[in-house]
Amino acid sequence: MAHDPIVTERVRDRDSLEPHFVFAEQEGRAAARLAEYRAAGGRPNIVVILFDDVGWGDFGCYGGGVAVGAPTPNIDRLARRGTLLTSCYSEPSCTPSRASLMTGRLPMRHGLLRPPMYGQPGGLQGEVTFPSLLSEAGYVTQAVGKWHMGENVESQPQNVGFDDFYGFLSVSDMYTEWRDPYFFPEIVYSEERTKWVENLAFNKCFVHATRGGETEDVEEVTIPVLSTLDDKWAAYSLDFIRRMAEPARDERQPWFLYHCTRGAHFDNYPLERFLGSSPAKHPYKDTIIELDDIVGRLVAELEATGQAEDTFIFLSSDNGPEMETWPDAAYSPFRSAKGSTWEGGQRVPGIVAWPGMVAADRATDGLFSQMDLFNTLLRLGGAEGSIPFDRYIDGVDQTSFLLDEAGESNRKFVYYWLTNVFSALRVGEWKFMVASTSDDDRDCLNLGGFTGVTQKYSHGRLYNLYLDPKESHSYMIRKLAYIDSFTGGLRDHLMSFGKYPPRQPIAAMS
Ligand code: CA
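Above: inputs. Below: predicted complex with calcium ion.
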């Protein structure tokens, strides 16, 4: 019988680790499977494919696809061959999210509360990333595509755990928006302002770097070059996958590929062969078609090189849809969008596949945070002993949730933070909210970055995400029996910041 997350107690292994559920039977079964795999095949390769600003509802397997003018057959197939997570959570925006995935820590702990833009200082430096720990444990580590966790040298991928990086350090729009007369006529048609942007201290190129070295410019990211980036980056990852399979099977090193696409962040300028390829005939949707095709190519290469059964794949998006740039924007059936702690901001697609090890044809609503990858991937890589104890880790080990066919989530609460303001917690179907962005329709319909007004609720609001996934009816007055459980979870969480104070290299914009 399933355990009820509301009434089940958690176990805290250490002060510095998020407490988690321990379900002895599923843990035993998962541990046995993993041990059996290790005995036969060593350690799995790991691929994390992270899209940018793609919504929960964009793929067919989530009810989108053909229904929203962009079929996604390859992603849907991957979901059928693996497990579909319906309650997978990111943070509300690119940089906080990506840094949380890398470190297993909430933005309030790693300090990247909002994206650094146009060469602003600050980044991942000083944090411990799971690729650096996998690397110490013998993994080859490759990052491809979008980085956006700091452009300063100490925060660049080749200095925080990756052997090799091929991609850009910031975010799509920063390279091109000021080159497009449709968005920035006052810059494009002014020689002085064009010169001024060109002299801003951010690199206009996508780059290549190897461990510990300096970045080398590959190509300036003009608008025509931007159209080709996802194709070029896919080719680089395909080549990496091929090279890793060159040695005989028992001589191969396990590897980790972090493949982050440019798409489908605004502004989308589709590659020529995908232009107009979607039934919607829209640049965003054409880009979804290309991203789906890239997933197909990556999976096909794993199969062609005989590595599919030795490779754990996680596919997701770094945050919800960016609605400020609609219609160059994603689809989510939930309330609001990127930049908010409503479900639309943080609930993202999450597909896990590992043939023979992760159940096929399975969908689960168990809570999963992208931060859980930190603990889970270190465990899969046999490096769980390297999790640092000098800092708080918000991720929990979800190995048994994912490797056991009937596995339940090991996570009790999802915590929502609106930069440095605590917003909400979810347990089971309930979401208890003490602060959020404005209810003003003019904000909520158009949210995207960090717009809107932060408001605090004197008495909290309570939403039932099964009955009311759009969070439109606070249920609080009828459900006071739960209140101690929610406030207790909230209090424990906030108290963890007493012993492990927040760090803020990139402060929230006030
Ligand atoms: Ca993003």
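The chain has 15 helices and 15 strands.
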